[in-house]
Amino acid sequence: MAFVLAWSMASVSMCFADEAVFDTETGYRIARYRTPTPESVPGGTRIMAADVAGLIKANAILIDVMPSEGGRANPKTGQWYLPKSHRNIAGSTWLADVGQGVLTSDQSKYFSDNLARLTQGDRSRAIIFYCKADCWMSWNAVRRAAALGYQNIYWLSEGTDGWTDWGGTLIDAKPEPFHPLPAASSDASAKH
């Protein structure tokens, strides 16, 4: 019995060791998104929950990048169907699924169009990205925004968990509507 258990554990370890967790071309995290994150992120500045209020007073934009967790957008209306509720920091815009390592053309457009709208085209406007603690989705989103030319990007690496631990409250949230591109111009393999 002990041999079988040891062999099973070794097999699981080997599976994780063989699994690519970063895209070799883009550097985005593509697997096991809920694991410890690094102390820094290329293109952004890591902040703590206590820093958020001051940045908001200075007109920073809060962007929640939690995945929809099985949700989907209605292709006609753009409204999301979500199998479970989600809560985020008041004043946030929820851009569901944009923290994934590989985005479709539709998702890339959803991300870039919403950033342009929220910043009113000002790439120097402060933006705070977050999801939950130990979530690589916000790390990916910071890198993706930097690649689009945004300059004042902050990463609330502890996300909503750190926010509530600090004493902050959360409110019910809905993702921004998602409007896919016409079928002829959609590309499911874009890596932005």
UniProtKB/TrEMBL annotation:
<feature type="domain" description="Rhodanese">
    <location>
        <begin position="111"/>
        <end position="172"/>
    </location>
</feature>
<protein>
    <recommendedName>
        <fullName>Rhodanese domain-containing protein</fullName>
    </recommendedName>
</protein>
<keyword id="KW-0732">Signal</keyword>
<dbReference type="InterPro" id="IPR001763">
    <property type="entry name" value="Rhodanese-like_dom"/>
</dbReference>
<dbReference type="InterPro" id="IPR036873">
    <property type="entry name" value="Rhodanese-like_dom_sf"/>
</dbReference>
<dbReference type="Pfam" id="PF00581">
    <property type="entry name" value="Rhodanese"/>
</dbReference>
<feature type="signal peptide">
    <location>
        <begin position="1"/>
        <end position="17"/>
    </location>
</feature>
<dbReference type="InterPro" id="IPR022376">
    <property type="entry name" value="PQQ_CXXCW"/>
</dbReference>
